[in-house]
Amino acid sequence: MPELLDAAVPPPSPTGPTDLAGLTPEELSALVVELGGKAFQGRQVFRWIHRKGVTDFSAMTDVPKSVRARLAEVAVISTPDIVRKDTSSDGTTKLLLRLGDGRQIEAVFIPDTPSQTFCISTQVGCAMKCGFCLTGTMGLTRHLTAGEIAGQVRVLAKELGFLDTPFNIVVMGMGEPLHNYDATMKALRMVGSEDGLHVSPRRVTLSTVGVVPGLEKLAQEAYMPNLAISLHATTEAQRDELVPINRKYSLAQLMAACRSFPLKKRSRITFEYVMLAGVNDTIEDARRLVRLLNGLKAKVNLLPLNEAAGIPYTRPSDDQVDAFAQVLANAHITVSVRKSRGRDIRAACGQLAVEKVAI
Ligand code: SAH
Fold it and tell me: Does residue 203 sit in helix, strand or coil?
């Protein structure tokens, strides 16, 4: 089996000035103290960056000039550049973003779900190679830094006017978040910080293919997002085929990790299930899914395949999807069918992939 998780490529190691975009309020305070300022001034700088979307030191008017001057000498604040902004007929907006090293990623705004939702990426590409996902065909170029992950939220909020309006976040863009665990969780804590946009973890959903050690770590986190598991199959053999990481962390191990995952009151694990015509969409599959989820606080989100050139599967008929959903509903499992948003601009699930850029 290819060692999927060994393919990790770290972001370029920082050689130049410190990038404040990737620092927590505590780290920023420590830096400001080191530079001769006061701890609370570090928090003020964090607020300018993350709450107000301001990255120009000269605009941070409540921070003493001397502190700003020292920061400007030793640090930068990097922000992903917007290369392109596409808006779908349904209002979904996809931003193509360029990072400091020229690599590109995508971040998506999905309106009225009924909430306003940002979908963010955690890696350039992805190493997981799920058989139906376009991002998987790119392979993994590198992990994103915490600053780049939180930066997507900052850019979306500023660009789309959400600095003062609540929104949800789904970590469902390019990449496998638990394969880039530390940067992802640090970014979520930054976004959740009361000095930042103060996004409650209840508004955040992290979606994973099921990197079991990552799930075990996540279970210990103080900032605990909602959990979505990309299940997609109900037998080991079928999942080995569709989601290759299953050969390392089996369905049995994944379900055991889900069963012991600490859930808050009234919260449930979402199981995502991409539906592939003639592959995993039969009534027998639905019945096996019911048995697999027996006793779990679960809901199921069916994702009829978004077809793409180079993906060797097709989307089942609406009738087939409905019949599958009915089996779950009859077993009293909450089931929803994901309405595919932004398909016309290739912003829908599994359609995020950027052309290779020459750098
Ligand atoms: N790597 C994480 C985050 C990506 S979330 C994960 O796998 O959970 C994106 C969701 O879209 C996943 O459930 C993924 O399996 C699903 N998806 C991928 N390709 C798709 C496609 N072509 N059509 C519909 N859903 C797809």
Answer: helix
Q: Coil, strand or helix: which one is 54? A: coil
Spell out the alpha helix ranges (H) of the chain: 25-34, 39-46, 65-74, 134-138, 146-159, 181-192, 212-218, 236-242, 251-259, 283-292, 318-330
How far is the centre of ligand 1, averaged over its atoms, from the C-alpha of 120 (Å)?
Answer: 13
Q: Supply φ then ψ for residue 276, to 5 degrees.
A: -115, 125
322 has pLDDT over 80: yes
According to the model, what pLDDT value does residue 144 have?
Answer: 98
Q: Which residue ranges have their beta carbon within 6 Å of ligand 1?
A: 130, 132-133, 172, 176, 207-209, 230, 272, 274, 303, 305-306, 311, 349-350
State the pTM of this model.
0.95
In this structure, what token pair is assigned to residue 100? 């400091």
> pLDDT tier at 344 (50, 70, 90 boundaries)?
confident
Q: What b-and-e string marks burial along 2-30, b requiring 16 or more CB atoms within 10 Å of the CB?
A: eebbebeeebeeeeeebbbbbbbbebbbe
Q: What is the pLDDT of residues 202-239, one digit of tens each?
A: 999 999 999 999 999 999 999 999 999 999 999 999 99
Do residues 175 and 183 lie in contact, with contact meaning Cβ atoms separated by under 8 Å? no
Mutation probe of ligand 1 site: the residue of 122, 230, 315, 346 with most atoms within 8 A of C-beta: 230
Predicted local distance difference test score (pLDDT) of residue 14: 63
Question: Out of 119, 126, 133, 349, which one is annotated catalytic?
Answer: 349
Is 106 one of the annotated active-site residues of the chain? yes
